[in-house]
Write a structure and sequence with these properties.
The complex is a heterodimer of chains A (312) and B (270). Chain A has one domain: MetI-like fold (Orthogonal Bundle). Chain A is 72% helix and 0% strand. Chain A is built from 14 helices and no strands. In chain A, 39% of the residues are buried. Chain B has one domain: Orthogonal Bundle (MetI-like fold), CATH 1.10.3720.10. Chain B has twelve helices and no strands. At the A-B interface, α1, α4, α5, α6 and α8 of A face α1, α3, α4, α5 and α6 of B.
């Protein structure tokens, strides 16, 4: 063991024994419970659908050596992917998920930005309270919050009672089991995810820059467009990714609020798995979903690591 | 003093109203004496009384609570270790993979995490039940703990640690006497977040659970699919109350910790 010296940051560091344990415990945990499960999903997605119970063929047999590896890869089948590609139901499910996620993200931005901006411009003694108020719903259950909306949106719920009392509608409209309900649920559940990163960037912004723009004769909208918006870009991108990625794979909200005609991809995985009991197809659907989300997830990760490097 | 324009005040007020009104309505409805949740028949604790005699619901609540306590504690230990590794050990080999495995679960759709963990348990031939859900929850929530503790470690004055090391304090003792007290508020909020995430999770628990380990969200979900029921309003209100009390308690502890551990007092301890 070398004595404890701190080398330059660019070279991989020789860690002491104690430090190695600190690194290895979470490392092994995540490899075992995060990475390995994905490898299994990938493998089963290439398995044959015919057998509904594990073990799925082909069985990987390391004892058979190279021959075993060859037979393993030879027996892999792309049937499940062919099924996904040929059945338009899956394609529309992916498309619907992307559409709902994109529209929800735009709606979240339109509602979240003025809110975050207002918070950042609030008197400083109020800011921690406002921050806490936005944060608090984040701690409470998605399920409970979606359920709260079922209370309001159901046929004889509060919203329809209100609309009828105000004579805005003749007959109570059906809110549940519609895309509108899904959008309400998404915007409601993900609003803290949008507001908090936006607030974090807007709060750090130097207000004198806007004053300078105003002094130089820029109208308020132009100062906003040319100064505030570009400076809040990191928050906008972070908020958009934090909402868009999980919404694409969302299950609870579309399942409880959405209609049976627009099935999102998270529901498709759930249905294939729990109702059709077709594990290989469920895995293939999940793998494709992951591939779709890979690019935004990588962008998000890069932003996170850069943020941390910047603040270090 | 910043001036608050009316536009800013209105947008914040509307936003907060949007966030809180549905929850307030839910809570008020849970005290409604009428079985029909849409008709107000006066205040009553009737549904709470019915809840208290619902054996299956109580059983689920007990399972959920034990699960959240265990997985939050495991996640806090694992997450703190990972945070220390990422912040303090520079560029060790495999650091990129570790940080990737920490950030990915934060945004990964829950159906994928749940499905993949279930298949791991099936492949390993482990009977599903309480412990499989506990493992799944620990894995997901440790990543949240890491992010919280990591951001605290990054804004932390390393000269205190270096002073202890220079004065001959062994690294492990330095960690427990200097670092740990300083990052304790972050660890506490990490634990808290892990606890509530485990308490609330439906999707991952549904995939990884087995006989005898029905959690409260799973039970609520199966009831909610059949429509709005006053008992569900009551149990949801109770869950909201548990989370609110816990969050407030932890923020008070953090406040207390922060005032008790000014840098001066830590330096005096070494």
């Amino acid at each position: 063991m070398k004595p404890h010296v701190r080398p330059a940051k660019t070279t991989p560091r020789q860690l002491s024994w104690g430090a190695r344990i600190v690194v290895l415990v979470p490392y092994l945990w995540l490899v075992l419970f995060f990475l390995l499960p994905f490898a299994i999903v990938l493998k089963i997605s290439f398995s044959q659908t015919a057998i509904a119970q594990p073990p799925y063929t082909p069985v990987f047999d390391p004892a058979a050596g190279w021959e075993g590896i060859k037979t393993f890869f030879g027996a892999l089948s792309s049937d499940n992917y062919a099924l996904i590609a040929s059945d338009p139901l899956y394609f529309f499910s992916y498309l619907k998920s992307m559409e709902i996620a994109a529209v929800s993200t735009v709606l979240l931005m339109l509602i979240g930005f003025p809110m975050a901006y207002g918070m950042a411009r609030a008197p400083s003694r109020w800011q921690p309270v406002l921050f806490m108020l936005v944060m608090l719903p984040f701690w409470t259950s998605f399920l409970i919050r979606v359920y709260a909306w079922i209370n309001i949106l159901q046929h004889d719920g509060l919203l329809n009672q209100l609309l009828l009392a105000l004579r805005l509608v003749e007959a109570p409209p059906a809110w549940l089991a519609s895309d509108t309900a899904v959008y309400i649920g998404m915007v409601y559940s993900y609003l803290p995810f949008m507001v908090l990163p936006l607030y974090a960037t807007l709060e750090k912004m130097d207000e004198t820059l806007i004053e300078a723009a105003a002094d130089l004769g820029a109208p308020r909208w132009k100062a906003f467009w040319l100064v505030t918006l570009p400076l809040s870009m990191p928050g906008i991108i972070a908020g958009a990714l934090l909402c868009f990625i999980p919404i694409v794979g969302e299950f609870v909200i579309p399942d409880l609020l959405g209609g049976s005609r627009s099935i999102m991809i998270g529901q498709t995985v759930w249905t294939e798995f729990f109702l059709n009991k077709d594990w290989p197809v469920a895995c293939a659907v999940a793998v494709v979903l992951l591939c779709v989300l890979l690019a935004p997830i990588l962008v998000y990760q890069r932003m996170q690591t850069r943020d941390l490097a910047g603040s270090a | 003093m910043r001036k608050a324009s009316w536009l800013n005040v209105v947008s914040v007020a509307l936003g907060l109203a949007f966030l809180y009104l549905p929850i307030v309505i839910l809570v008020i409805n849970s005290f409604n004496a009428s079985r029909l949740v849409t008709v107000w028949a006066g205040w009553s604790l009737r549904w709470y009384a019915e809840l208290a005699s619902d054996r299956a619901m109580l059983e689920a609540a007990w399972v959920t609570l034990r699960l959240a306590l265990f997985s939050a504690s495991a996640a806090t230990v694992l997450g703190t270790l990972a945070a220390v590794a990422l912040v303090r050990f520079g560029h060790f080999r495999g650091r990129l993979l570790l940080s990737g495995m920490i950030y990915a679960p934060l945004v990964m759709p829950e159906v994928i995490i749940g499905l993949s963990l279930l298949l791991l348990f099936v492949a390993a031939g482990i009977d599903r039940g309480f412990w499989t859900v506990a493992l799944a929850h620990s894995t997901l929530t440790m990543c949240f703990v890491t992010v919280i503790v990591q951001s605290r470690l990054l804004t932390f004055d390393t000269s205190l640690e270096e002073a202890a090391l220079d004065l001959g304090c062994p690294p492990l003792k330095t960690f427990f006497t200097v670092t740990l007290p300083l990052i304790l508020p972050a660890i506490a909020s990490g634990w808290m977040l892990a606890f509530t995430l485990s308490l609330d999770d439906l999707v991952i628990a549904s995939f990884t659970t087995g006989p005898g380990a029905t959690t409260l969200p799973i039970r609520i979900y199966s009831e909610v699919r059949l429509g709005v029921k006053p008992e569900i309003n009551a149990i949801c209100t109770l869950m909201l109350a548990v989370v609110a009390v816990a969050v407030i308690a932890v923020s008070l502890v953090i406040k207390f910790q922060e005032s008790a551990h000014r840098p001066g007092t830590v330096a005096a301890r070494i």
